[in-house]
Amino acid sequence: SFRRFRFFCTSKNNVERSRVLVDAFQTISMARCAERNFLTDAIPISTMKRILSLTQMAPSSFNIQPYKVVLVQSSEAKTLLSTCMLGYNAEKVLAAPITAVFVADKVPTRFARKLMDLESEHGADPEYVHSIPSKLSFLLGRGVLSNSFRQLITHLTSPIVAAPKISNNIESFAYKNTAFAGMQFMLAATAHGLSTCPMEGYDERRICYSLNIPSEEYGIPFVVCIGYSAASKLERFTEPEEECNLEDDSKKSFVKRRFKMEDMFYSNYFGESLKLHR
């Protein structure tokens, strides 16, 4: 439970804390594998909400969180997505109760103001908050001339002081940050007795068209099926059907600053309000 974890994080008995955390992480890491066969059994809404909340705990550069996740659940959307998949991946999409399409934002600077508001609401240093737009623009600004200028500046200063390497390809930044969330999603699923299967075999153009994803602004680094394994009897983790809230009074000091869940996850199609199916 969270309270037990909090005890171990604050306990002076570091040996006991380390042993418990290592054993738990080893169990989850060893249990996670790419599942090939899924049961069609639905995932409890409370369990899925918990997994999504834990997914958002993934690290993110500047906390900009440059990704969205489309949770494909309806029969119509699953059929559309299956026609975009290559080979046996289509059958996995049709069988799994949910397929998560991870979408990387290739224009992450668009959320600078939103990030400033988020950080301010959580008491971040005002000086840091006001520096966010300039930092993001310097590292992730668009335009050939501006990129060339920033590359020249960092190249010249590198022998004197450490400087970031400026890339012409902002997409790589978004893909790396989205990958953090994807791994967190799979580990969280495993911890809840669910199986996953990450996939790269698909036609990205067709997925964007089928799920209403603006292909000029977003890319799809991977797709992940999630559900109960048909090959093994995993112990199913269930929680009471209650609203998932990681920000109650007993946990506030441990909560990471993240955008609202409904801003990060969509149902079936890009931009469609999150609504988990039973």
Can you walk through the features of this model?
Helices cover 45% and strands 12% of the residues. The protein has helices at residues 2-10, 14-31, 45-55, 75-82, 89-95, 112-121, 126-140, 144-157, 170-191, 204-210, 261-264; strands at residues 67-72, 98-105, 195-199, 218-227, 265-267. The chain has a five-stranded mixed beta sheet with strand order 3-4-2-1-5, with helices on both faces. The longest helix is centred in the middle third of the chain and has 22 residues, at 170-191. The radius of gyration is 20 Å and the shape is globular.
Oligomer: single chain
Major beta-sheet overview:
5 strands, mixed
Query: What is the percentage of strand-forming residues?
Result: 5-15%
Helix content range? 40-55%
How much is the average pLDDT?
Answer: 83
Q: State the shape.
A: globular
Return Rg in Å: 20 Å
Distance between the termini: 25 Å
Order of helices and strands: HHHEHHEHHHHEHEHE
Helix tally? 11
Main sheet: which strands, in order across?
A: 3-4-2-1-5
Low-confidence parts lasting 5 or more residues at pLDDT below 50? 249-254
Say how many strands there are.
5
| Backbone structural class | alpha+beta
